[in-house]
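Researcher: Please predict.
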Amino acid sequence: QVQLEESGGGLVQPGGSLRLSCKGSGGTFGSYNMGWFRQTPGKEREFVAAINWSGTGTKYADFVKGRFAISRDNAKNMMYLQMNNLGPEDTARYYCALDSSRPGGITIFNPLRAVEEKQYAHWGQGTQVTVSS
């Protein structure tokens, strides 16, 4: 059973940076595409960034605007989200997610599908990011 655990959230001032981490366990982590989503109270969870199984392909939400960088270290079963120049609008609970679909035993990274919450079967509990002065 795949389990995901996020860490690295906290309180940061506007313009500051945070690095979120996602630790995976219970599966062949490096075979799967993964992503980051975020959610604020009363709103639907929204896509932030996605990365393919090898780390060579990525997809970002438009609002990232070059501020965030997603990466992964399969040897450590880790995924990261480096967030720079944070603003109050980035305040949210951030979730990591894993897409365990492998049709025909092949992992395919489709950037159009990577933004969809329904593409991901496994989720962490989230880590809170608060941007405030």
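Model: DSSP finds one helix and eleven strands in the chain.
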